[in-house]
Amino acid sequence: MRLTLHTDYALRLLMLLALEPDELHTIEEIASRYRISRNHLMKVTQTLASAGFVDSLRGRGGGLRLGKPGGEIILGDVVRATEDGFNLVECFDRKSNTCVVAPVCGLRGPLEEATLAFLAALDRYSLADLVANPGSMRRMKMLLAG
Questions:
Q1: How far apart are alpha carbons 116 and 11 in whole angstroms?
Q2: pLDDT digit string (tens) for the chain, length 146 residues
Q3: Which PANTHER family match (predicted)?
Q4: Are 71 and 128 in contact (CB under 8 A)?
Q5: Which of 27, 61, 25 is nearest to 46 (CA)?
Q6: β-bridge mates for residue 25, sequence order
Q7: What separation in angstroms does the CA of 85 have from each of 44, 93, 141?
Q8: How far apart are the first and last CA of the chain?
Q9: Which 3-state string (H, E, C) describes the chain?
Q10: Domain locations along the chain
């Protein structure tokens, strides 16, 4: 399984907001600090705001901040909100499945089980867990400072 850049950027954005919760951050600033596409980050921000993970304050002095405490933002929920789906193989999509062996194939069950286990593991962690190590977070802030 591979997460999309959309999810990767979403997790990076949330980590920064959790790391610096007393500051408002602009898309421009975050894109510059992470050296990622501003346009892509705007789409990510829209997804996160729609899901309630991020508050977007408009106007002069506006910016982004967490929409709720980091301890309430569960990683599995973020991944579910930012990924298009978890169809690892064609037969997961019952509407467009054209696999001729699907009716007798034993692969689907184990792959579904693995996907559920993957999400269950992420459900055990919150955003706060990602930024809980002060030493690592201090180094991350230094890297992002430029």
A1: 20
A2: 788 999 999 999 999 999 888 889 999 999 998 899 999 999 999 999 999 999 998 888 889 999 999 999 999 999 999 998 776 666 666 677 677 766 777 777 888 898 899 999 999 999 999 988 766 666 766 666 75
A3: HTH-TYPE TRANSCRIPTIONAL REPRESSOR NSRR, WINGED HELIX-TURN-HELIX TRANSCRIPTIONAL REGULATOR, RRF2 FAMILY
A4: yes
A5: 27
A6: 64
A7: 16, 10, 32
A8: 32
A9: CCCCHHHHHHHHHHHHHHHCCCCCECHHHHHHHHCCCHHHHHHHHHHHHHCCCEEEECCCCCEEEECCCHHHCEHHHHHHHHCCCCCCCHHHCCCCCCCCCCCCCCCHHHHHHHHHHHHHHHHCCEHHHHCCCHHHHHHHHHHHHC
A10: 5-83+126-145
What is the spatial distance between Cα 27 and Cα 77, in angstroms, rounded to a whole number? 22
Residue corresponding to tokens 């062996």: 101
> What's the rounded Cα separation, in Å, for the pair 37 and 22?
24
Smallest CA-to-CA distance from 127 within 10, 33, 3, 34 is with: 10
CATH of domain 5-83+126-145: 1.10.10.10
